[in-house]
Design brief:
alpha/beta; six-stranded mixed beta sheet; 17 strands; about 15% strand; flat; binds adenosine-5'-triphosphate; binds magnesium ion
């Protein structure tokens, strides 16, 4: 009798571990099973079978309980201890049905009484493998529920788990992805996650913001140019398309791309070839496209601002990022991580939020989404000290009221011009800073850019106003 395990195949088929000490019977079962084309590993002894299972976990086990070296029930328990989702089918002689029942109590999947035919064995095995698949799926979902971080994202809400799953399943393919979501929801984080989870991760990730680049430069930014192509083109320069060769090209704010350039981009998406500005030659590149917008792309198509043919080329896999207000307790998870990171960066002791602050963060509408939350926490950390973040440390946060007010323009725009409409300069300054903060979702550096002042000026002003507000509240109370 051989004491070595033997394998019927080395392919990637479902792996069956057959533990049967009577070799002629084992050969017969293997013949039965071959009809279903599995990879069968045969062992005659319990100890060797456990070693084989440890070396390469089986999907199902066919176990004869009468073994020369070990009690079959022990083998069963050891297999389950190693892998709770493995399905074990017991084969037993007529006289040992009690033992088989005992095995069922120890969570064997099923038992078959000898002698049996190929159909009986294969049917039971198919069920066992099916159960294994289901058990794996449940395990996978449980893991998902526990997943609070994913390639730069923080958040365990079911809404974000769905985003993570989509990213994982599209990452392996070359299909173009179209990301939509309000400003600050993490569209760029998602584009990077797709790249990092994809086989192109060793290639470049090139992000091109179609809104941030002047229209007349955009074509050369994408496709590159040759020396002398236009005034100032002092040498050949590769565009984003060539730089992203073998990697991912992220076309951010795609709806802002000028209409005439959209047809050139469409050609690139269709043919995979680019034509640098001023050059007659075509270059072939291999890129995966990920596009994003915070507009409604179909509305842009209907308004004839975005080419329908380009939309359908890019919109192969849609990925929608939910607004932060729909992500439940993710707000707190994200806020705590930002607090920890920024406190460490700024050398502050702030380590937690009071329950009132958490309630406030949870209840807020977050029109600027994660970016706004990030800025609020940065603001708190820069301007405050102490072990805990308390309500009075929170800056004024633009919410639904402020957002709708910003949408209807300056609050005084409809007032008739009057001599006394001239306001003190400090008040104009305060209103302008507050407006810039509202428009940028409390992004101090971006607001500073809009106002053409430094971010530290804004931080200083915010602190002065907070102190002044605190003083006047104190005076009122007194
Ligand atoms: N789930 C998240 N966890 C942690 N950080 C996040 C998350 N989502 C976004 N961020 C951070 O928030 C900021 C804004 O994200 P990002 O730039 O990807 O948003 P966006 O949707 O592209 O915004 P916009 O439409 O304004 O371009 C970034 O600093 C990003 O790192
Ligand atoms: Mg973005």
């Amino acid at each position: 009798m051989s004491s070595l395990c033997t394998s019927s195949s080395t392919s990637k088929k479902r792996r069956i571990l057959l533990i049967e000490d009577t070799v002629p019977l084992a050969k017969l079962y293997i013949e039965f099973l071959r009809a279903d084309a599995h990879e069968v590993v045969h062992c005659t002894r319990g100890g060797e079978a456990l070693d084989a299972a440890a070396a390469s976990p089986p999907d199902a086990v066919i176990l004869d309980l009468k073994l020369p070296d070990m009690d079959g029930l022990e083998v069963l328990q050891a297999l389950h201890a190693r892998d709770a989702s493995v399905s074990v089918v017991i084969i037993t002689a007529h006289g040992s049905i009690d033992l088989a029942v005992e095995a069922m109590k120890l969570s064997a999947f099923d038992f078959i009484v000898k002698p049996f035919n190929a159909d009986r064995l294969n049917l039971t095995l198919r069920n066992a493998l099916e159960r294994r698949t289901l058990a794996r799926m449940v395990e996978g979902y449980r893991k998902d529920l526990d997943r609070g971080r994913f390639h730069g994202f923080i958040g365990s809400s079911p809404e974000m788990q769905a985003v993570y799953r989509t990213i994982e399943s599209v990452a392996a393919s070359r299909a173009n992805v179209f990301i939509t979501g309000e400003s600050g929801t993490g569209k760029e984080v998602a584009a990077q996650a797709i790249h990092r989870a994809s086989p192109r991760r060793d290639g470049a990730f090139v992000a091109l913001n179609c809104a941030a680049i002047p229209k007349d430069l955009l074509e050369s930014e994408i496709f590159g140019h040759v020396k002398g192509a236009f005034t100032g083109a002092s040498g050949d320069r590769p565009g984003a398309a060539l730089l992203a060769d073998g990697g991912t090209l992220f076309l951010d704010e795609i709806c802002e791309m000028p209409f005439d350039l959209q047809s050139k981009l469409l050609r690139f998406v269709q043919t995979g070839t680019v034509n640098p500005v001023g050059s007659g030659r075509e270059e072939r590149v291999d890129v995966r496209f990920v596009a994003a917008t915070n507009r409604d792309p179909l509305a842009e198509v209907q308004a004839a601002r975005f080419r329908e043919d380009l939309y359908y080329r890019l919109h192969v896999i849609p990925l929608v990022l939910p607004p932060l207000r729909d992500r439940g307790d993710d707000v707190i998870e994200i806020a705590r991580t930002f607090l920890f990171d920024y406190a460490r960066e700024e050398g502050k002791a702030l380590a937690a939020f009071t329950p009132e602050v958490e309630a406030r963060l949870r209840a807020h509408d977050w029109p600027g989404n994660v970016r706004q939350l990030q800025n609020v926490i940065r603001n708190v950390v820069v301007l405050n000290d102490g072990p805990q973040v308390t309500l009075d440390m929170l800056p004024p946060m633009s919410g639904p009221d402020a957002a709708s007010c910003a949408a209807c323009g300056s609050p005084s725009a409809d007032l008739p011009e009057r001599d006394d409409a001239v306001q003190p300069l400090w008040q104009v300054e305060k209103e302008m800073i507050q407006k810039a903060l509202r428009l940028t979702g409390d992004d101090v550096p971006r607001a500073a850019l809009m106002l053409e002042i430094s971010p530290s000026t804004i931080y200083r002003k915010l602190q002065q106003w907070r102190i002044a507000d605190g003083r006047s509240a104190g005076e009122t109370a007194a």
